[in-house]
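Example record

One chain of 106 residues, shown exactly as stored in the release files.
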Amino acid sequence: MEDILSSAALPADVKAKVKGVLDGAEFEFNDWAGGTVLLDFLTQKGLKPPHSCRVGDCAACAYRVVSGDVVMLKSEGLAPEDVADGLSLACQSVPASREIVVSFDG
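Predicted structure tokens for this chain:
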């Protein structure tokens, strides 16, 4: 993890609100802790986001950031134009703003 990336993320004791769509169902949580990747957080909440490698290489867990900010700890699985279009990897994303809206459904 690079210091520049980690300094932009929320501290571990700060919670973000995340809401979104996964497999056509809406979800909303108010306790996404800084430093926790989105894939782990959603899995702990009982959701089943797509994933495969968990290390940022395969892009199976790609999702769209609709609003708010996340920091990707590693992004080799996405092309720069994908990142510019708002795609992120759930296995590598930590919250960087207090409210984030995401979509796994396109």
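Notes: The chain has a mean pLDDT of 92.
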